[in-house]
Design goal:
The complex is a heterodimer of chains A (256) and B (257).
Chain A: E1 28-32, E2 40-46, E3 49-60, E4 73-80, H1 95-111, E5 120-130, H2 135-149, E6 160-166, E7 169-172, H3 176-181, E8 184-191, E9 196-206, H4 208-255
Parallel strand pairs in A: 4-5
Antiparallel strand pairs in A: 1-2, 2-3, 3-5, 6-7, 6-8, 8-9
Chain B: H1 8-19, E1 35-39, E2 47-53, E3 56-67, E4 78-85, H2 100-115, E5 125-127, E6 131-143, H3 148-161, E7 164-165, E8 176-177, E9 185-192, E10 195-198, H4 202-207, E11 210-216, E12 222-228, H5 235-256
Parallel strand pairs in B: 4-6
Antiparallel strand pairs in B: 1-2, 2-3, 3-6, 5-6, 7-8, 9-10, 9-11, 11-12
The chains are: A alpha+beta (256), B alpha+beta (257).
C-alpha cells in the first residue's frame, strides 16, 4: 500500500477515476472452455485484467512422494507473463507468485471433492496476461470455472474479489491506481452457498468496523461474480445441447 | 508447515479432548504458551532476538547495509525479510532454497511490519535517490512446535526494537536507534472442526482445517491478515478471531515493553 491519500481518487460525488461508484464492480467477462488441450479452461476479464486458467487432471501425481493415498492434491500455479505489467517482469516464479499459488491451492482444495481421486494431482495453471490490480482474485475466479469446465466435482464455484480503502473510504474492486495509492487491500474468496471464506488476506490499515463493512461489500460482490461464472458455464454447455436438440427435429420428417 | 503424517491416535485424542472443551496441554482456547524473549542475543547483528514460544524456538537478526533505494521510493530505506526453515528444526524441513512455507512465513511477517509502518523508513534515507539504509531481517527457526507466524513476528519486532543503526562503521556519523513508530503484534488461530484455538502447537496445526493470522497495531486497527490451510472460516469465526486478536495483542504488546 502506497498509503498516499493526498491523491484524489474519489470525487465529491463519490465517483472514482474510472467512473465507478464505491460499491461497483468493474465490467466482468467470463468464458469457459477457451483452450483445446486442457481438460478444462476459462478466460476472465475484470476491468483491464486478462487472465487465463487451465486445468489438467486428475492425473498421476509427480513427484510421487507428493501423492496422497486417500485423495487428490490440487496444485495451482499462478504466473504473470513478462509483459503483463508496466515494467517487464522477469519470467518464472518470484516470491509473490509462490505465495499466491499456495493460498489459491489451499482455497480450491477445500471445494474440490478430492477424495474421489486418490493418488492423483489436479493441476491448475493461471496465467495473468494483463494485470490491473486484483489478479489473484481474477485468477481464482477463472480457476474455479476451469475446474467446473473440466467436469471435476466441487462443492460450489468460488468467486473472489478484492475490497480496499481509498481516500479513507472502503471501496470495492480496486483498480491499479487505487491499489497503488490506496490505504488497504483485502482480497477474499467465498463459497456462496455456505458463506464460508476460503481465501482472505489483508494489508494496509483498516479499523475493525471498516473491515466488517469491507467483508459485507465483498460478500455481495462475490454473489454477483458467482452469477457471471454460472452464466459462462451455461453458455458453454447449453449451446451444445440445443444444437443436439435441433437434429431430432429432422429425424421424424425422414421417418414419415 | 510440511504436513507430515499425524497418527490417527493423536488426531482422535485432540478431537476427543476438544469435544469436551480441552486442549492437550491444558490451555484455554485463547491462551498463548509461555513466551520468553531474549534481545541482543547475537552481538554481530545490529539487532537480534531469540524467542521461545512454548517449545517453538526462533532466532531473528537484523543486519543493515547502505544501498540504493528503489526507484519508486527514492527517499525511503529498504526492508527485506527472509525466513529459513533449517533441517535442525524439524524432520520435515529440508535444506535448499526457500519453499512455499518459508516464503509465506517471511511475507506474512514482512507484511505486519511494513503495513503497520513500524519502521520510519524515511528516517533511513541518507541521500534521496542515492543512498539509503537497507534492513535485512533474517529469521531462523531452530525448533518447530507450531505457530511460527507469531513467534517470528515477535522475534522480528523485538529485534527491531533493539536495533542500532551502524552509522559509525559506515562513516555516516554516530550510531542511532532504529526509528520506530508502532509495535505490531500478530495473533494466529486455527480451526479444528468447530473449535478455534490460538497459538496452536505443532500437533494442533497438523490436524487443523484452517488458520488465520491477524496483525494489529496499538489502536487495535488491522494491519495485515493471512488465511491459510485447506479449510474455510465463517464470517462469525473471522470476527471472533479478530476481536480476540485485538485483546491478546494488547496483552502481548505490554510484555514487549
Amino acid at each position: 500500500m502506497g498509503g498516499n491519500s493526498n491523491i484524489k481518487l474519489i470525487d465529491d460525488n463519490g465517483i472514482r477515476i474510472d467512473g465507478r461508484k464505491v460499491d461497483e464492480l468493474r465490467p466482468i467477462k467470463i468464458e469457459a472452455g477457451v483452450l483445446k488441450n486442457a481438460d478444462g479452461s476459462a478466460y476472465v476479464e475484470i476491468g483491464k485484467n486478462k487472465v487465463l486458467a487451465a486445468v489438467y487432471g486428475p492425473r498421476e501425481c509427480h513427484p510421487r512422494h507428493m501423492q496422497n493415498p486417500a485423495k487428490a492434491i490440487v496444485q495451482v500455479k499462478y504466473n504473470m507473463i513478462s509483459f503483463s505489467v508496466d515494467d517487464r517482469k522477469r519470467p518464472g516464479p518470484d516470491r509473490r507468485s509462490v505465495e499466491i499459488s499456495k493460498i489459491i491451492s489451499e482455497a480450491m482444495e477445500y471445494v474440490v471433492f478430492t477424495e474421489n481421486y486418490p493418488r492423483t494431482s489436479i493441476d491448475v495453471f493461471i496465467e495473468v496476461l494483463q494485470a490491473n490490480a486484483g489478479t489473484r482474485c481474477a485468477g481464482l475466479t477463472a480457476a474455479s470455472v476451469a475446474l467446473a469446465d473440466a467436469g471435476i466435482p466441487m462443492k460450489d464455484l468460488v468467486p473472489a474479489i478484492a475490497v480496499g480503502k481509498v481516500n479513507d473510504q472502503v471501496v470495492l474492486d480496486l483498480n491499479k491506481e487505487e491499489d497503488n495509492y490506496g490505504q488497504a487491500d483485502v482480497p477474499m474468496a467465498m463459497i456462496p452457498r455456505t458463506g464460508e471464506v476460503v481465501l482472505l488476506q489483508m494489508d494496509g490499515h483498516l479499523t475493525y468496523d471498516e473491515f466488517k463493512y469491507a467483508i459485507s461489500l465483498g460478500k455481495k460482490a462475490c454473489a454477483e461474480v458467482y452469477e457471471i461464472q454460472k452464466d459462462a458455464l451455461r453458455r458453454r454447455y447449453v449451446v451444445e445441447s440445443e444444437a443436439e436438440q435441433e437434429q431430432p427435429v429432422s429425424v421424424p420428417d425422414q421417418e414419415a | 508447515m510440511a504436513r507430515s503424517v499425524v497418527s490417527e491416535i493423536k488426531r482422535d485424542h485432540i478431537h476427543k479432548l476438544l469435544s469436551t472443551g480441552k486442549r492437550v496441554d491444558g490451555r484455554a482456547w485463547d491462551e498463548f504458551r509461555p513466551l520468553s524473549i531474549e534481545t541482543n542475543y547475537v552481538e554481530s547483528a545490529e539487532g537480534s532476538a531469540r524467542v521461545h514460544l512454548g517449545n517453538t524456538d526462533v532466532l531473528v537478526g537484523v543486519k543493515m547495509l547502505i544501498g540504493t533505494p528503489f526507484a519508486d521510493t527514492p527517499d525511503k530505506g529498504v526492508l527485506s525479510t527472509n525466513a529459513e526453515l533449517i533441517p535442525m528444526a524439524s524432520p520435515s524441513f529440508e535444506a535448499g532454497p526457500p519453499d512455499e512455507n518459508s516464503i509465506e512465513l517471511a511475507r506474512v511477517v514482512d507484511r505486519g511490519i511494513r503495513e503497520s509502518q513500524m519502521i520510519d523508513l524515511e528516517k533511513l534515507c541518507i541521500e534521496p535517490g542515492k543512498e539509503v539504509w537497507m534492513n535485512f531481517i533474517d529469521i531462523y527457526v531452530l525448533d518447530y512446535d507450531g505457530n511460527l507466524f507469531d513467534a517470528c513476528t515477535l522475534g522480528a519486532v523485538s529485534a527491531l526494537m533493539t536495533t542500532m543503526v551502524p552509522a559509525k562503521a559506515h562513516e555516516k556519523g554516530e550510531d542511532f536507534k532504529m526509528p520506530l513508530r508502532t509495535v505490531p503484534v500478530s495473533c494466529t488461530a486455527v480451526k479444528i472442526e468447530n473449535s478455534l484455538l490460538f497459538d496452536p502447537t505443532l500437533d494442533e496445526e497438523k490436524v487443523a482445517d484452517a488458520r488465520l493470522t491477524v496483525t494489529t497495531d496499538e489502536n487495535g486497527d488491522l494491519r495485515a491478515m493471512q488465511k491459510g490451510l485447506k479449510g474455510a472460516f465463517t464470517i462469525d469465526q473471522i470476527e471472533n478471531i479478530i476481536e480476540t486478536s485485538q485483546r491478546l495483542g494488547k496483552e502481548i504488546r505490554q510484555s514487549l515493553g
